[in-house]
Amino acid sequence: MSLLRTCLLACSTALSIGVAPFAARAQDSTYAITPRLLLDLPLIDAPYVWHAAVMAANKRLGITDGTSATPAAADLLRGYESPSMQQALAVTKDLHAMDHYLTNKLWNGWLAPTSRKRRLLNRVAANVQAGIVDYVLAYQLMVFGPAWMHEEFHRSGTTLRGIPTFNETYYRFGGGIPSASVSHVSDADMARFKQEDPAGLVRSFAAGIEAQYALLRAMQQDDLFERTHAPNVAMNILLTKQAVGYVPQFRAADYDRSIDTMNLHGAEVAERDYVGWDFTAWVYDLHRPDEPYAARGGHPYGEGVDRAIKRARLTPEEDAYLVRMGDLQYLNFLAPDMIGVHGFRIGARTRFNFAVRHILTSFGYDLGGDLLLDHRGRHWLLGIHTYHNHARSFGGIELMRKGLRVHRAEVDLRGMLWVQPAHGGFHDSAGRIGGLATARAGFPLGRALKAYAEAEGKTDGWVMANPYLKSNLSIRGGLALDIR
Question: 299 near 263, Cβ under 8 Å?
């Protein structure tokens, strides 16, 4: 796979040099850049809101014995401290969408794109400025940015089980040093999580970078379908590079020493991250679903369980598997959006784009990609999925139709059909058919504001940015803003 990595990096460099000057031509036949701001605020996501309220009540009462408190009315509000995957994704996307919109407004005034040359300069300048702001939002502000979203996707699994946790990016508001970490988790809760839902535990460990790829996917759809002209090249590369680099991080010479340092500063149970570094723990528990959590051994500097998994703890098979997963991660760079090409034209009324995806799951990984098509204003997404566990490969297909007009409502439809491991496990030899259906309807409340309602039902199975591994029906509602 080292050859694959070299080829991908070489292709990316060549495309950046050779395609960037023609990116404007690939996207539009005119030079105009029309700023557009799309904001989405999902106010309700049920039944997740109830799980979050139970978690908030358990946290308030200090419950870690496996029982659940009955939430008070105030706990429904406190539960918003742990938003659902869809809520966290929307908030982070909104934050960066505002940066991209304001950047476009600014550079349209400073360097109006009235010619091919001026448009190219406009795009270069806008992408540089937006990239700097995106970086500050991601790594300095942290709260509501990708680091916060990464941790909230981790927390979704624990919140569904009522396990109290804390996202340490919230320390940006005071009380401690902000970091990308989930803490204040008891060993007893982690032991029950592993015993009762080993696939859910494994999924929660990989869910952080799942969040980043879900954000990239959402931005790519806006770029093609809604023509937001977002100057998000740096954002796309930043998100992907961080995710791609995190999986093979365990190969660094000082990896195990970094865990020693982590343990030294986590002498108190409440201070410890609930997983440590994500992916050695992910591959460890992926291969050992029946091993008790306490088998990790005692913490070297304090009471409780030694949560973080060193590379030295992995078997040769586990190590080799994680090396392969790290190499496959480079496939996520295969998307024209990485160099600012938001779509290619076929004739006067058709545009398309694509992306390749390798996502770690609760049972192994999903390798596939998206084909996005805008034909005469009709927006389609075709997703191809191949699901892999230890010894088997399965398939799936996804179809999305966005922007249907039904009377005054705007309707988005999505359907998935798949075969995944029968019991959602790494060692399952049989497959099981499943699927998902989503319908979202938006109703105008004014020129730019609309309310929307969404229903999403699924069978047992893993779906990116849906926290439920078991069958579930979710109802969401919120407000959306479209400023052109």
Answer: yes
